[in-house]
Every structure is written in structure tokens, then in C-alpha cells.
Specification:
The chain has 314 residues and is of the alpha/beta class. The chain contains 11 helices and 7 strands.
């Protein structure tokens, strides 16, 4: 019942705003001249129900009213603009050539065409303003804990990487009511073009050589490794630099999670020994190896060394 009422309210509000935009566009074009409004009164009165009908049919057909604007992405806003353009263009053609009566006061000229352009601009402004407001209001956390409750992360945060993973992580931290957004201090990225730039308000301090400097400057306590596409060698080198700072170092999941947009605070884990290898870990098929050597005399070269002696022991 609540969803149906919300849908009806949205439809009615849209149609009222669209009609108002059309009328307002005409008045702006005519510099709010009441005399000109009287000359075109019949055209205005005929245009209001026509534009409302066309937009209602178009928005219903293209499922604009099925979009959940609190979760909207840029594609949804582009769709709204495109459908609005097609609808208004169709309205302008029908209204100008088939609906508007000729106006003898203006020497037989039809409805001012520039009023359509101005009206379309007002339509886009009104529709985007309402939906942006819904998006921002719904995005606000429903619960805001006190500063004493924000204990999910203790200390300032540095993120290694300034790409897609870092952007998703920053967004998740910003929407998490239990983490103080101000703890995000800086990003590290080796791309010199990114130095000094910002991602969602967080500055890219510099490359890997500036990590120790940034730790001291921003009093960093937590480092999150958010590069998922680098080689194992680069990963090991960066994690080695981070571990020498004395900060708590954590890392992100694999690239498949980034592609699916499934990265968040819950995906962060502590650094493992495998992360520091500098290569892909080698897994041994124990069962197959056992059948190969079981009951046989095996010679181990270099058995006196650390690797050979451990191999003999196992």
C-alpha cells in the first residue's frame, strides 16, 4: 500500500512539474509578459494536458518509474534525460504543427519555438532536482552513532592504490556509521599524474617512496592495500615497505570482487605470508607425490641445507 501511494505521488508530482516547466518556459521566453500570455492562452491550455499525457506514456513504457532512485547510478540519470528529450521533442512536434491555432496578433506566427527549448531545460532541471534530492536523502545513514561508538577502526588510515578498489573502499567507509570518515587521510599511487589529485575528498599523497613520509605526516596507524591488479613482485615490495612502518597492514580481495563491485570493509583481511612471497604460491598435490615416492629409495640433493633437511624431515 505504501509503495503504491509512493508511486502515485511520484507520477502526479512529475506531471505537475513537467506542465509547470512547459508554462514557465513560455513565460521566461516572453519575459513574463501577461499580454503575450493572453495571445497564446489557448495554445498553453491545450499544451498542458498533451505534455502530461506524452510524458506519462513514455515514462511508463521505458519503466522510468521502476527505477529505485536511492540506488540510482549515472546510467539511470542518463536514461531519465534521454526519455525526457524524446518525450519533449514528440510533444513539441505535435503541439507546434497539429495543436496550436494560428495567432493573428503576431501576424499569423505560431507558438514561439524557443519556448520549447527553455521548457525542456526546466523539465530536466525539475526532474533531476527531485530525484537527486531523493538519492541524497535515502543515502544518509539511518543511525548515527556517537564519537565514542565509532570504534570499528582505531587511528588514521592510509590506502595504497588510487584506482577502482580504493574508490569502492572509500565509498564504503563513508557510508559506514561506525567509522569516522575523517580518519581517511591519504592515498598512495605510483602514477605521477595522480599525485595531488583527490578521490572523494581524499588526497593522493605520492608514490611508494613517500609511504614513510606520509605515515609520519598524517600520523597513520592503519594501512589498507587496495591494488588488485599488480604483479606478485610489486605486491610483495609494497607490502614490505608498509610492514616496516609499524602500522597495521591489511589487504583487499581479488580482482573478481572489484569487477562485481563487491568490495567493502568486510572484505579486508590481514596480510598473509603468501602476500610477501613475490610470486604465486605453489601448491603440491600431496596424494600424487606420496604415491610417487612411497616405498622407494629417494635421494635428496642438498639435503644438508635448510630446504633439503626440511624436505627429508617431512
Amino acid at each position: 500500500m505504501k509503495n503504491r501511494f509512493s508511486l502515485v505521488f511520484t507520477v502526479v508530482a512529475d506531471l505537475v512539474l513537467i506542465a509547470a516547466a512547459f508554462v514557465l518556459g513560455f513565460f521566461v521566453r516572453g519575459e513574463f509578459s501577461l499580454a503575450q500570455a493572453q495571445d497564446y492562452m489557448s495554445s498553453l491550455l491545450l499544451g498542458v494536458p498533451l505534455i502530461m499525457a506524452i510524458f506519462f506514456v513514455a515514462f511508463s513504457f521505458f519503466k522510468v518509474y521502476r527505477i529505485l532512485w536511492q540506488y540510482a547510478k549515472y546510467f539511470d540519470f542518463i536514461k531519465l534525460i534521454a526519455v525526457s528529450f524524446v518525450s519533449f521533442f514528440l510533444f513539441a512536434v505535435i503541439h507546434y504543427f497539429f495543436v496550436c491555432p494560428e495567432n493573428p496578433v503576431s501576424s499569423g506566427h505560431m507558438f514561439p519555438r524557443s519556448a520549447y527549448i527553455i521548457g525542456y531545460m526546466f523539465v530536466i532541471f525539475f526532474l533531476l532536482a527531485v530525484r537527486t534530492a531523493v538519492y541524497l536523502v535515502e543515502k544518509r545513514p539511518t543511525y548515527r552513532p556517537s564519537p565514542e561508538e565509532k570504534t570499528a577502526v582505531d587511528g588514521n588510515i592510509m590506502i595504497i592504490g588510487a584506482g577502482k578498489a580504493a574508490s569502492l573502499l572509500i565509498s564504503d567507509i563513508s557510508n559506514n556509521p561506525y567509522i569516522d570518515r575523517s580518519l581517511l587521510k591519504c592515498l598512495i599511487d605510483d602514477n605521477p599524474a595522480k599525485k595531488g589529485s583527490y578521490i572523494d575528498g581524499v588526497i593522493v599523497h605520492g608514490g611508494r617512496d613517500t609511504i614513510p613520509e606520509a605515515v609520519k605526516k598524517y600520523d597513520i596507524k592503519n594501512i589498507i592495500f587496495a591494488i588488485v591488479s599488480c604483479s606478485p613482485e610489486v605486491r610483495a615490495e609494497l607490502l614490505s615497505i608498509c610492514s616496516k612502518t609499524g602500522c597495521s597492514v591489511r589487504t583487499m580481495p581479488g580482482v573478481s570482487n572489484i569487477i562485481n563491485g563487491m568490495v567493502g570493509l568486510s572484505d579486508i583481511r590481514d596480510v598473509k605470508i603468501e602476500d610477501l612471497l613475490g610470486r604465486t604460491p605453489i601448491s603440491i598435490d600431496i596424494k600424487r607425490t606420496k604415491t610417487m615416492v612411497c616405498g622407494k629409495v629417494v635421494m635428496v640433493t642438498g639435503g644438508g641445507g635448510s630446504i633439503g633437511s626440511e624436505l627429508c624431515r617431512q
